[in-house]
Design brief:
The structure holds 2 protein chains of 2 kinds. Chain A is mainly alpha-helical. Chain A is built from 12 helices and no strands. Chain B is an alpha+beta fold. The chains are: A mainly alpha, B alpha+beta.
Chain lengths: 263, 352
Amino acid sequence: MWLRERSPFVIASALLGALILLFLILPVADSIFTSAGGLYEALMSEGVRRSITTSFYAAFITTLIALILGVPLAFILSRYEFPGKRLIDSVIDIPILIPHNAAGIALLMLLGPRSPMGSLFSGVGISFTDTLFGVVAAMLFVSSPFMIRSAEEAFKSIDPSLEKVARSLGASSFQTFAHILLPLSLRGILTGCLLTWARAVSEFGAVVILAYNPKTAPVYLYDVFVSEGLKSSAPINGLLIILALAVFVGLKFLAAKPTKPVY
Amino acid sequence: MSLELKGVCKEFGDFKVRDVNLAVGEGEYFVVLGPTGAGKTLLLELIAGFHRPDEGRIYIDGSDVTDEPPEKRRVGYVPQSYTLFPHMTVEENIGFGLKVRGVKKEERQKLVERLMDSMGISKLRGRLPMTLRGGERQRVAIARALAVNPRLLLLDEPLSALDPRTKEPIRRELRRVHEAFGVTVIHVTHDQLEALMLADRIGIMNDGRLVQVGEPREVFLNPKDEFVARFVGFENLFEGEVEAVEGGLARVRVGDLVIEAVGGGLGACLVGIRPEDVTVSLKPLSSSARNSFRGRVVEVEDMGALISLSVDVGIPFRALVTKRSFTDMGLRVGSEVYLTFKASSVRLIRAK
């Protein structure tokens, strides 16, 4: 709807809003346009392609793990009250609060080769430093809260009476979850997947510390920037931005089925 | 089938159920009547099995179900806002209980078909709940509950969300369903009229307790305490003292008035008179009614078909007149009127 009200307050709000929008759009647009000439070349580079594949693949695995482990937690949090629930709430917010390289260092201390846990995992052939496991671990740490919160919100928006009715009709708690809760929260969970994937794919700080290799796209970009300078990194930069936007918009479009009204 | 509650207690948030003892017979239509917050919904949810009582036991058909989860109780539950599954069609909603119980598709369809037919909703089969009207939703919700052949049907305020015009047909539908399916019904409401029209027996609930249980007539005529009296419409309720009893008539002092009532027993009591039992006139009536008092109209309240008068006869009295007689008598605030009522219209409620 067109803004009909022309009060000074509304006009001032719109102007201030335009400023921040401009600040968000300009760097992205600038990157894309100045690098336009070198995009194809960047895309043909072996290192770029490999890093992008690593990023997308690791983010996909991360999203899958977050989905399997996060949705049940979201269900518990949305439906039950228990002692310690507020503590759990705070725990879920930790990754959003702390600097991501700090998260990387924390993960390295926990999972590094000389740590007890690291040696436990290396006993079964899993190492977290400079492996895909490390990339996924770092991504999972910073992105899983998005999955948990999205699913939790989705579950909370469902009227608990629906579950009561389902139970009274003979559905077990699992059947109720599968037939009622899950279908009705599908959009919220899909949104959670999207946000988790987007957060994971763009993660740099935690990943670079735990697993410099295999290089993800942001790490590769940083590598080129440091060793070859701004000019060389610009086309890669533009390419990454375009790709990330394209994938995100594409997925969002897929997920944005017409809203199914409740009741 | 039959239901029995023995000493059931539960606290849940702001709601309480306190020491409820109740036996509902097979095929009975039982209405729990009480104000908002009395714990009626919690009582239903205890019977359905969504909460475990803090104390007491619940029996269905003689077997103890207190520790059974809701899906094992075979109790049909229709919550206040019907809550149809929004992502399923009418047909799927009704068939849901059969589906999760593993009834084969063909048999399921046959049963659903028969139910939709019986409830007059066959045309709605493919519709989603959001496209239905209130009355249609209620029919679907009832059909869904009946589909699993429940031992009990629990209805939480089934008429309160309906507009006045839809209420009537759905109320008749409830009666018909009760008779046709022979199912025992527990119906919760705050509406006296609903209780009167549907119930075989009613239970008045206040502050978590069932304060009086009986046939509607009995409860409405002989309230046991002040709360029930007020709730079933004894708007004129005064503290009094029986001074003398003679030939079945009690003389009760209320402030400066002496009211004659049928009944006996000396001492303190509550005196209750329904406003619709009080006749209003401009001159004293020469009738057999034993009580007649002169007073002044202090308030006039238009209630649609009727007008509620507040009359000061030494104590504040409420009386109802039709709009017609209100106009004919030319009543207004300050008019002098006579209030007349029979001794048999006066209820004496003993203080405990």
